[in-house]
Write a structure and sequence with these properties.
alpha/beta; three-stranded parallel β-sheet; 39% helix; elongated
Length: 67
């Protein structure tokens, strides 16, 4: 089974990793793809990029990040 997940910040990364662990326990061989941080990647997520690239706070930090 293939599962796609997205976590955009650290608490989502933690929850996502726990979800991945539960899914893997019930369905061994599941592969995970999407966007996540180090915790999800340690559980086996094939991440397109790290969430640190998404995490932007503050006005002056956000404005340059707007496409």
């Amino acid at each position: 089974m293939k599962v796609y997940l997205i976590a955009g910040e650290p608490s989502g990364d933690l929850l996502g990793s726990r979800l991945m662990r539960a899914i893997t326990a019930k369905y061994p061989g599941t592969t995970f793809f999407g966007v996540g941080g180090e915790t999800m990647q340690n559980e086996g997520l094939n991440s397109l990029f790290d969430i640190s690239e998404l995490a932007v706070m503050g006005f002056f930090e956000v404005v340059p990040s707007i496409p």
